[in-house]
Design goal:
globular, 18% strand, alpha/beta, homodimer, five-stranded parallel sheet, Aldehyde Dehydrogenase, Chain A, domain 2, 41% helix
């Protein structure tokens, strides 16, 4: 390693690291990566679009890992309904693991400051490519441009830096060496002790199709910071955004005199997947996974692995009482429509008491609330300036089918999912949310995750029943978020206590420009890790501590 | 709860808590509980012996848990070879779990300071009973009086306080509430946030027969401090020491206006065990286990539980080079003889190169080293003042049989295990260690844990082979300790790196009054949690963090 290079990177970024460590304790707002595109270069958008266009129909040659056996790729733009034509170097599972294994000792023995310097510098380089990454995300996931920019750019970098900062703090909480002196009456025993955070081994990070960088970088940076070589296996339909991120990490590694194989990308296709071969290899000790519950359960069941999962859950919203119904339903309409419900944090089940919702202006009957929610969703999705942008595109054909089929689930159809035209991309796969009304007892309909633009309104006896069902769903099926609208302090306390007991966070009375879907780095834990929606959390101490083992050695003086 | 009582306990013990938190970061020597009996009351020994004698052949009525269905007990003193006749209140598994469940909310909502105040006060009360606990430990485990006093008294209290301090620090690392203010250009979003460490649920702590308090209190205090109600299920042959501990916890709970059911004891018999019924109950979310690998593997395999295990391992010692062989072999003789190898930290396999051991006075041939080790062990165990006290008693008949049968394992018998007479307890089950010489390739003989007084000398080609075999054994079978004698800095570095890679700590060149068997609280992690010897560590952050879930709630301002 070029020690002076790594050291100079650390010095350059030490203030950022220290601020990040302060931020994870303060938990007020902080970020070194502004979230608005306008905070960046004026020509950035145009340049990013051009750079993305140039990548299409070419081999992706930025990665520094060598020995590929060919080039593969099958990404399709949900906006263009067209293959991107980008092909990535192909490697066999064993080849990737052998290369990662070969870097284990070298990276594991690299000091914490050098690791931190290299990784924060990589985030800095990634920042200069936010626009490209945004277009790459848009045309793989179907997210709108602005969501693509924010989620895959600044917000992903935030989460990566957060994981790195949590890891750095954990690694440095215990002294690396200490003289231990035990008084024995007439004499003393003196030992020189040291403590080492020994990395667990090769780390596999399995990405998802909807948030290819945001959900991948926390595990990737946590594993790298704690000294584990990483293999990132993106979803075959969403590779480009993370490929750019990995390429930047590899470049900085190489500049610091380290092997790019410390952080490799593994690409496969839907027809010939290599994820299981990677995951089951005995050398792979750590697995991060974002995706379906069935594959997540499989990953969690693998013996001898430390596993971090984010799986499916059923997020709920309880409406009990509000000051003014209009901003509440506008906020909810946006929350369920944003990226067509393809966020793991999006509400799916909205519980409304049959007796109506208390407001400052009196009780609003149940039917009126449902009608107003319908109107709010319709108003948003059909809004010429906001509709298509809010919905974004549907990432997968199966998600669209699920939305279309919602009308035949058995509930009362308030809104069917309809095709929406995005004026900018006429053939884009865009659909409005289906809104289905069901009764409290129809749990077989609304207790499972219905990923995508499907929303259930559940008519309950009262808010106590709403809460009981919401709690039961979270306990049995898992939940990442829970929204509650309530003006009564006692009831709010009760809701919080009940939902927290099933390890589900509650967001109260969100209106305006803040939505239950949003989890802010350096403040909100993403997924609690306590229920069926996943066993890990971005980024609590567990998220990093389980990637290494403290080993202490002693020597007589 | 009597809040003023709990608060006053916290104020009383706050300085101890703060010092403990400082100590876990400093990792130099610290303890609030002196380890020498002479540091306590002069009449303590006599009073403790009397108190213990009075308990014999009586029902144990100190516990404050109610509704027992009878009294049971079958402890036998390895020294007296006589049943203690002490009977403990009997409860059904379901009964215990229902009572624990009933305390979940109450204890979970008790503030951290109150929990800490109650628990440190309990340790303080336990301290006043160290002598009784020592006799209870001696006559259940077979430990010598001095080891019983230290291990079950001050050292156990140290580990309990350490776990509590680690937990307290983790719980208070994140603010309980914070205003989050996000600048949005022309306006700001303001949220009131809170974070709660939600306890996972009922905690089951399964004790072992050899260290009934030392191995039990870390999990017990970690679970209690993080808000989980605890059920302690001691080994049916070693109940009394932990019964006294639990009784003291229950008394302080009651005085503070809390239910004693927050910390219950579950007693069973070898013929009618209830451990599996407790462990498999869905309400039990946390399990701490110390004992055999087979039962530990079963506990680890239970779905939906967070499990902390200490299982069996194979501890090794490598002799490469020394200054002076005599103090080295004296130290080793003591380490293998102490409590007859019934410590999870005792060395079992001693690797010696066939070419001999380098010393300051020249090379000592292999045969001479083995002879000197034999002499050192013989000298110790037959020493009229030290022998019986060092060996202690054999806790279980099967352990004695294993030692006796070591002569027929297939190696060359250097020393057969022989009965040793303890002048104080003539019928005591006391045996000297068997010392068996094997070749490097006889792995089927020495690669398994041979619990008790059985030591193998393994003749290797050279120290490289010693190290390779030692590493392989740790990787395949697990290891808690590793001793190495080596005067070459490069080789020491190499040994440390190799053994640390399989998550095994190394103790170098121990001579004099410090032994590889000893792990000091507030400094040495006990078990790394990284190899097959166990998945948990006293007491790293993981040991407490996995007992609760961070849940954050948000509210618009």
């Amino acid at each position: 390693m070029n020690m002076s290079q790594a050291l100079s990177l650390f010095q350059q970024h030490e203030a950022t690291l220290k601020a990040a460590i302060t931020a994870i304790h303060d938990r007020g707002f902080w970020t070194p990566y502004p979230e608005h595109p306008k905070a960046y270069s004026e020509t950035g958008d145009e340049e990013g679009k051009t750079a993305f266009s140039k990548m299409m129909n070419e081999n992706f040659t930025e990665l520094l890992q060598e020995g590929e056996t060919g080039f593969i790729g099958e990404e399709v733009s949900p906006y263009l309904q067209l293959g991107l034509g980008i092909r990535y170097p192909k490697f066999g599972a064993k080849q990737l693991i052998d290369k990662a294994q070969a870097q284990k000792k070298n990276w594991g023995n690299t000091d914490y400051n050098s690791r931190a310097g290299i990784l924060i510098e990589a985030l800095h380089r990634i920042q200069s490519r936010f626009f490209e990454i945004a277009y790459a995300t848009m045309h793989t996931t179907g997210q709108s441009f602005i969501m693509s920019f924010q989620a895959s750019g600044p917000h992903a970098n935030d989460r990566a830096l957060e994981a790195l900062a949590v890891a750095y703090e954990e690694l440095t909480r215990i002294p690396s060496e200490k003289e231990w002196v035990k008084p024995m009456g007439k004499f003393e025993i003196r030992l020189d002790k040291n403590w080492k955070a020994v990395p667990k081994g090769v780390s596999l990070v399995i990405g998802c199709s909807t948030f290819p960088t945001w959900n991948t970088v926390p595990g990737m940076f946590a594993s790298l910071m704690t000294g584990n070589p990483v293999i990132v296996k993106p979803h075959p339909k969403a590779i480009l955004p993370i490929a750019i991120v990995i390429a930047e990490v590899q470049k900085v590694l190489k500049e610091a005199g380290m092997s790019p194989d410390i952080c490799q990308m593994a690409v496969d296709t839907l027809a010939a997947p290599i994820t299981k071969e990677l995951a089951e290899d005995p050398a792979v000790k750590l697995i991060d996974f974002t995706g379906s519950s069935s594959f997540g359960d499989y990953v969690e069941s693998l013996p001898g692995k430390t596993v971090f999962t984010e799986k499916a859950g059923v997020n709920s919203c309880l409406i009990d009482s509000v000051n003014d119904l209009t901003p509440v339903l506008q906020n909810l309409a946006f929350a369920v429509s944003l990226y067509s419900g393809q966020m793991c944090t999006a509400p799916q089940n909205i519980f409304i008491p049959s007796g109506g919702v208390k407001t400052a202006g009196g009780l609003v009957p149940y039917e009126e609330v449902v009608q107003a929610l319908k109107d709010a969703i319709n108003g948003l999705v059909n809004h010429p300036k906001m509709g298509a942008g809010t919905l974004g595109g549907i990432q997968a054909e199966t998600t669209l089918e699920r939305a279309k089929n919602a009308v035949s689930l058995g509930g009362k159809v308030i809104l069917a999912s309809e095709n929406i035209v995005n004026p900018e991309f006429e053939g884009a796969r865009v659909a409005s949310p289906a809104l289905i009304e069901v009764n409290a007892q129809d749990q077989k309909i609304y207790f499972g995750e219905c990923f995508g633009p499907v929303v259930f309104v559940i008519k309950t006896k009262n808010s106590e029943e709403s809460l009981a069902l919401m709690k039961q769903a979270a306990e049995e099926k898992g939940a990442i978020t829970c929204a509650a609208y309530c003006t009564d302090e006692g009831m709010m306390h009760h809701i919080e206590e009940e939902m927290n007991e099933v390890f589900t966070p509650v967001s109260f009375n969100f209106t305006g420009a803040i939505f239950v879907n949003q989890h802010a780095a350096f403040s909100d834990f993403h997924v609690t890790g306590g229920n069926a929606a996943g066993n890990a959390s971005f980024a609590n101490p567990d998220f990093v501590n389980r990637r290494f083992v403290w080993v202490g050695n002693r020597r007589i003086k």
